[in-house]
Write a structure and sequence with these properties.
Elements lengths: L12 E2 L2 E2 L3 H10 L3 E4 L7 E5 L3 H11 L3 H21 L8 E5 L3 E2 L4 E2 L9
Parallel strand pairs: 3-5
Antiparallel strand pairs: 1-2, 4-5, 6-7
């Protein structure tokens, strides 16, 4: 998936605030692509590998302020449920989504600063 900007809470830090799109984050959790490439937020250049599961969804919802105490309880059970499944299904590979903020420029003059990010699928 190629988008202009990042999903909320992932490679989206700009100065002192998060500049990603919460609706894009929801869509990523819905379709779970293998690779998402974006730019726009030059300061957040890099790569992040995520397992888009219920535990991460609950954590992100709490950080966005959408969850309240119910989401906190849900996060607790999802994290420990994921740990139990991981222990029981040790040899099963988890589907990882790789997020790449491919911004190669930065600074006040938008000079070339960052190396290209190479991803092998």
């Amino acid at each position: 998936m190629v988008t202009h900007g990042p999903p909320h809470l992932h490679l989206d830090t700009q100065s002192f605030h998060r500049a990603g799109c919460p609706h894009l984050a929801e869509e990523l959790f819905r379709c779970r692509p293998r690779l998402v490439v974006f730019g726009h937020i030059h300061a957040a250049y890099g790569r992040e590998d995520l397992v888009l599961d219920g535990a991460l969804w609950a954590q992100d919802s709490i950080q966005r302020g959408w969850g309240g105490y119910c989401k906190l309880v849900e996060l607790f059970f999802r994290v420990y449920g994921a740990k139990a499944r991981g222990w029981l299904l040790r040899n099963q590979r988890k589907r990882v989504t790789t997020l790449v903020n491919a911004s190669v420029v930065g600074g006040s003059e938008n000079e070339l600063r960052n190396e290209p990010v190479v991803v092998s699928l």
